[in-house]
Amino acid sequence: MVGPAIVTEKRVAATSPSKDELIAFIQSVILNEQQEEMGPFYVLDLGVVRSLLDTWTFNLPMVQPFYAVKCNPDPAFLKEMAALGTGFDCASRAEIQTILSLGVSPDRIVFANTCKPESHVKYAAKVGVNLTTFDSVCELEKIKKWHPKCALLMRIKVPETSGAAFLFGSKFGALPEEIVPLLQAAQAAELKVVGVSFHIGSRAINYHAFEEAILAAKTTFETAAQLGLPKMHILNIGGGFTSGPKFTEAASAVKVALKKYFPTGPTTGLKLMAEPGRFFANEPFTLATSILGKRIRNEIKEYWINDGMSGSMNYLKYDHDDVICTPLANFGNNDVITCKGLETSDSTVFGPTCDPADTVLEVYPLPDLQVNDWLVFHNMGAYTSSRGNDFNGFKTSAIPTYLANSDKIS
């Protein structure tokens, strides 16, 4: 749910998520709202979204991104991605409906879920979403029955060597010994297998895994040709990308592997796709939370904030990125200032619920803060609001998003 949007006409330079211009915008939101007890809110910087797409296009111009909607389905964010011309990776009827409601053509959607409810398959057929993934005979039977004209990508399990925080091989992807039987089953059902998809895992650290995965895809292409299937022409390299220097490393590994295993590229009519989520969603979002309470115990300062592990911080249960947090002191009377230069001490930050596991930060350096001061969390777009719930009546779904517009300068 997106709350009231404030769109600034000023195009500010944001060389990093914690630059003064972004903090100034957050300060302006706090002061403009003039609420006695203001809830948490997001800031979505649309300029950062555009910059990330420029980065993608510069590094991987041959690969069309299909943004993974599940990562963050914020309507304003999706609208910007649609306007920029990206495709979309949808995994359910609801996600497809959301993207189509933006005026996006169904040919910009891949139904990237290898096991879909029959009603969702029928809906895809009805609205013209004609590209999906599979990795089982059962799925082929559903598609044959309800969407026989749909083009198929075989999702394959690839070697799990990426060091990713989240690996998908236990749930998704045909095993090497299953590839021939599945291709034969598709051939017998007169279904069109047009390509291969894979995913090396989310938050990968070893991008040489792309070479092994692309080799496995190449082998699958060759196997299909040997079985007499029509020539495959789509390769979907999945996700696993993050922004920053790691993306450059990943893009380089992809290009080296493509040159090695698909050397003639576009001249063969090969279409290259990817399904990035975190790469586009994480950096543009910033979360501002206010302090609800304070306690000092054994010389440790403990703070309660109005969002936590059941809400936007849910990702901390699974992701262990370094938290980037900026404290702001609220003195009222149009005065909200940063705490730069103040002495800090190791502190604990709790979320607002009655769950004892609702601990957001431990041994984290913070200055001496008070109730109604603020903690601003950066890089908060990936699997945050989308995975939060409304436990204890603290509604993640009601957190508003304010829009900023910056030019990101590297």
TrEMBL record:
Keywords: Lyase, Pyridoxal phosphate. This is ornithine decarboxylase. Its EC number is 4.1.1.17. Its cofactor is pyridoxal 5'-phosphate. SUPFAM superfamilies: Alanine racemase C-terminal domain-like, PLP-binding barrel. CDD domains: PLPDE_III_ODC. InterPro entries: Ala_racemase/Decarboxylase_C, De-COase2_C, De-COase2_CS, De-COase2_N, De-COase2_pyr-phos_BS, Orn/DAP/Arg_de-COase, Orn_de-COase, PLP-binding_barrel. Residues 42-381 form the Orn/DAP/Arg decarboxylase 2 C-terminal domain. Belongs to the Orn/Lys/Arg decarboxylase class-II family.
